[in-house]
Amino acid sequence: MDKKLKVALGNDAFLPTIDGVNTVIKYYAEHINRELGEAVVVTPENPNKKDYMFPFEVYRYKSLFTFGEGYPVGWPFKREFADDIINMNFDILHSHCPVATSYFFRRINRIKRIPTVLTYHTKFEYDIDARVKSLAIRQKAYTMIGKDIKCADEVWVTSRGTADSLRIMGYDGDFVVMPNGCDLPKVTVSDSEKAIVRRKHNIPDGVPVFVFVGRLMWYKNIRLILDAMRLLKDRERDFRMLFLGIGPDEKAIKKYSSIINVDDKVIFTGMIDNRRELQLYYATADLLVFPSLFDTNGLVVREAAASATPSILVKDSCAAEGIIDGETGFICFESSHSIAETIHRIIDNKDLIGRVGNQAQNNIYISWEDSINRAYERYQIVIDKFNSTPHGPYKW
After folding, report:
1. Positive or negative CA dihedral for 389, 370, 184, 175?
2. Cα Rg of the chain (Å, integer)
3. Longest dimension (CA), the chain
4. 64, 104, 188, 214 - which has most CB atoms within 10 Å?
5. How far apart are the C-alpha atoms of 325 and 330, rounded to whole Å?
6. Do the beta carbons of residue 291 and residue 311 sit within 8 Å?
């Protein structure tokens, strides 16, 4: 990795909008600029931006408005924006979203060909199917995203199972698996530090603690978690289930928790921004309960592993890739009964949970340094392949 590369890291949103992909981009930009070369984040305007806080450049192009939790709608159609990127003399363009960002990179390539990588982070069919009722319009959306995927010189996924979503979008080409890393260090957290979380939420000593970390959205299978907690309560189990995060379905999730009468067992903490505090939550938990089929990598599984906390994951989910049941995690089926039964079977076996947590920490943890170094090496392969291949008129 002797050659210093200049990399454009593009996404349809960036901080202060908080989600998993923006976190990925932040760590890419920080590590590349600190250790490897130069990286610039390319993203739409955000009225709440605080770009002066970052030790790297953020180039923002026009956005029309923001929606939801601060997501801008980018408008990359002005020639000036493409010329700005071309004049920055990037060695490679790395898109992290096959919508406005990838379309923007297509417009740039129509003027000047620059090697382009796309990381497909999100199963877009979930959002499209939830919001678009017309089958014809839904298929058109798939086709548009598929075209943006196909225009990349190389496609990356964070887990092999993500390829199923690529196929739904109409992409049938090759891909490279490039897993994300984890910024939380491997640690052993003392009992006195864990007691801080228990005191904060009035959780008695000895009561099992479970956590879910992520955006509060139904399609992360949160209903299954709540129903499983109801089943455990019916068995007269005492526990606390902590939900760390916010999201568009937060109000409905809290209401459902009340309807099924598990409010005395469930705690909603809101967003935990401080990474050290978040690690204390992971360490305090006996288990991370993460039955999501939506997530393509399950970064939270590695974050939990950093604190030697094992996860309960759904069989054949992307988050469960590389997990061995009873060795580096616990595998269940996609049902509340299976989640509850798995917890009921193992929760009193502290030696088992401790052993599996330690093996998760030793065997599935990936640092951001290792992850990004691997990606940076791959950039050079993509560039070399691009430079050795004749290019005709750009067809996208």
Report:
1. positive
2. 22
3. 69
4. 104
5. 5
6. no
